[in-house]
Amino acid sequence: MRAAFVSGGSSGIGFATAHALAVKGHNLALFARDAARLLEARAAILADAPDIQVETYAVDVANRDDFVAALTDAMAKLAPPEIAVASAGMATPGLFIEQSYELHARHMAVNYLGALTLTDILSGPMAAAGGGKIGLIASGAAFFGIYGYSAYAPSKFALRGLSEILHLELAPKNISVTLIYPPDTDTPQLAEELRTKPLATQKITAGGGRAQPSEIARKLIHGMQAGHPVVTPGLQMTLLYRFGSLLAPLLRLYQKHIIARHGAS
C-alpha cells in the first residue's frame, strides 16, 4: 500500500491533507509536536479509513536529529513515501524592533529548515523507489513584504525559492515538487497568529476571506497529482502570483496609508 508522510499532520492543513490521502488508501506517517493531538488525529483518520496504517511521531521539526530519526523510522515501517507534505509551521506577527533574534531563528527553523529536512531525507529514497510527489506550504506573505511579518515572511520567501529550484532539480528523478500559496485558512495556527497581529497588519491583510483546511488540502493534492509547480487557491492568490512584482509599488503605498491611519502598533 502507498504511503504518505505529513509534518504538521495533527491539525489544520496538514491534518486535512493526511485525512484526504488516507481516504484515498495511503498509509500515513504523521509528525507533530503534540503527542495527544497526534493520537486524536490518528483516531479521527482511522474512523474514516480503518484499513490503513497510521504511524505517529511526536517531534519538533526544528530539531533536525530528532526529525531525521522519526523520518527514518517511518520509512522502515512504511517504506519510502509516494507523497510527502511539509505542513508544520508557525507565525508570530509583530514589529521587528520588538521581536527577538531567537523568534526570527525559530521561524526559519520550523517553516524553512523543517521543510528542508523532510525533503532532504526523503527525496533520495523516493527517487530510488521510482519517484513521488512533495508538497510544500507557502503563504501570500511570500509575494511581497507585509508590515508585521518580518519574522514569518522571510521563511516563506526562502521556501518559495527552494521549491522553485527543487521542482527543476528533482524532476529527472521523477519527483514533482508543488508549492501552494494558501490564503488565511481556518487553522489553529491562524488563531495563534491573531493573538499578536498588529492592528495595521490586520487591516492590510483583511478582505481575503478565510479558507477551510479541507479546501486547501483538496487543491494541494490535485496540484501534486497533476505535477503542477504552483497552486494558488482563489483569485487573490492567483493575482498576487501573476502580478505581484507589478503591484508591489502600489501595495507599499497602500500599506503606508494604513500604517499612517492606524499607527505603528
TrEMBL record:
PANTHER family, sorted: 3-KETODIHYDROSPHINGOSINE REDUCTASE
Gene3D superfamilies hit by this protein: NAD(P)-binding Rossmann-like Domain
SUPFAM superfamilies: NAD(P)-binding Rossmann-fold domains
Protein name per Swiss-Prot or TrEMBL: Fatty acyl-CoA reductase
Signal peptide span: none
GO terms under cellular component: membrane
Entry's EC annotation: 1.2.1.-
One of the record's GO molecular function terms: 3-dehydrosphinganine reductase activity
One of the GO BP terms on file: 3-keto-sphinganine metabolic process
Ranges annotated as spanning the membrane: none
UniProt entry keywords in alphabetical sequence: Oxidoreductase
UniProt superkingdom: Bacteria
Family annotation (Pfam families): adh_short
Origin species: Shimia marina
